[in-house]
Amino acid sequence: MILLPLFSLLSQRLTIEVAALPLQQLPVVPTYAYSSVDFYSPLLGGGSMLDDAGDGFGEPLNVIISGLSSPQVLTEDGIINFAKAIGFSEECLGIHLGAPQSANLGDGNGWVNQTIELRQDYGNSEIGTCLETLIGGNHFRVFKQNGTVAPSGAVFLAVSQEEDLEESHTIIPDGYNIGRDKLTSLAAGTTHFDGVTYSTIARNITGLLAAGSVGVNHGIGTDGITTLLTVTIIDDCSSS
Length: 240
Known about the structure:
By secondary structure, the chain is of the alpha+beta class. The protein has helices at residues 4-10, 76-85, 128-135, 175-187; strands at residues 28-30, 63-65, 88-90, 102-104, 111-113, 116-120, 137-144, 155-162, 189-193, 196-206, 225-236. The protein has 4 helices and 11 strands. Keywords: Signal. It comes from Lentinula detonsa.
């Protein structure tokens, strides 16, 4: 059964600009009022706001890049360039340790492995993530909502702050909330990388993620907030 008519009936557009506000003052917006173009709730399509980390537990999809963002941002290359603009990059030497996680975004694709994983680069987009591998830091997994049931094009991120290599990169206490807030503070406003300049608006949403630690990997609770980023390219002088 195609669910798009249901999504259309449930959706309204939100236009609350908060990029200029301190992170702790971001408005909390009820989930019944988001635009169906920003994203579709995975819950309406039988999906989950926790990815599959194994053993019946998952990590929260706590940041969404809106489908209303510039189309170039929503491609894999576009996500990587935007990530570099806010202090993240590809994994050290292109090496990924550990099994990929999967997510069901309720778009008809079922459980799909992460597109890519990006890590804090400590100011060097070439080799900085090697330092993150050693000492820990912020990182996120990327999942795209592009199935025929809910083709928003939105990008869902599972963001968390992790321990160092000696601690096997486990998530720090309150690491899901901390990781989300650190990424949001870096993204909101104007950023740039490789000739591309971005303007990003951030909005907080409740009702998608359940607050608490039920089903959450490592038993680390969350506050139930998901941050929606609308990323607009305002200048593109890149060679591509």
